Amino acid sequence: ACRELGNVTRGGVRDTDRRPGHIPPPTGTGTKTRPPLTSILPSGRNTSTKTDGSGVLRGEIWRYQVGGMRERVVVLVSAQAVIDNDAYRVLYGVQVIHTDPGHVLTVSVTLDDTPVWLDAAAGLMAVRRGLLTKHLATITTDALASLDARLTAALDH
């Protein structure tokens, strides 16, 4: 009831752009864009060449691999100024999960026709920039704003 459904950016067109009264995010000077994605979660067929964790954007979904541990999928939530500064080797992210935890501190998004959840109640993950292995997608500005509100509620700020 309290969750919003957001869709990822694919080829510069958001599925939510077709909603009546939807105002697209600003574009132009100072706005970073990404080339069209060929594949998204969970198959791993993405052909993105960006694998070094540099030049990432807030709201992007990445695969994250720590040594021999299980691979995770995270959405980056650090401020863009922090992400843009390579001196910060650790960013913050929220884990993307494939089952609905059933509470109000989640945001549901659809990735490649698969529903997944961004769980603010699970807390922030410290994500080492160099361990981001594959860019998968970017959530909409509406979904990111909804996640920000849930993180704020979870942190009581």
Order of helices and strands: EEEHEEEEEH
Unreliable parts: 1-5, 7-53
Radius of gyration computed on alpha carbons: 15 Å
Strand content: 25-35%
**Termini gap:** 22 Å
**Helix amount, in percent?**
10-25%
- Count the helices. How many? 2
Class computed from helices, strands and strand pairing: alpha+beta
Tertiary shape: globular
**pLDDT averaged over residues:** 74
> Number of DSSP strands?
8
Q: Largest sheet, described in full?
A: 8 strands, mixed
Write up this protein:
This protein is of the alpha+beta class and 157 residues long. The chain has two helices and eight strands. Strands 1, 2, 3, 4, 5, 6, 7 and 8 form an eight-stranded mixed β-sheet that branches. The longest helix has 15 residues. It is globular.
Helix-strand layout with pairing:
Elements: E1 5-7, E2 60-64, E3 72-76, H1 80-84, E4 90-97, E5 106-111, E6 114-119, E7 125-128, E8 132-138, H2 141-155
Short description:
The protein has 157 residues and is α+β, with helices and mostly antiparallel strands. It is 13% helix and 28% strand. A hairpin with a 7-residue loop joins β2 and β3.
What keywords describe this structure?
alpha+beta; 8 strands; eight-stranded mixed sheet; globular; 157 residues
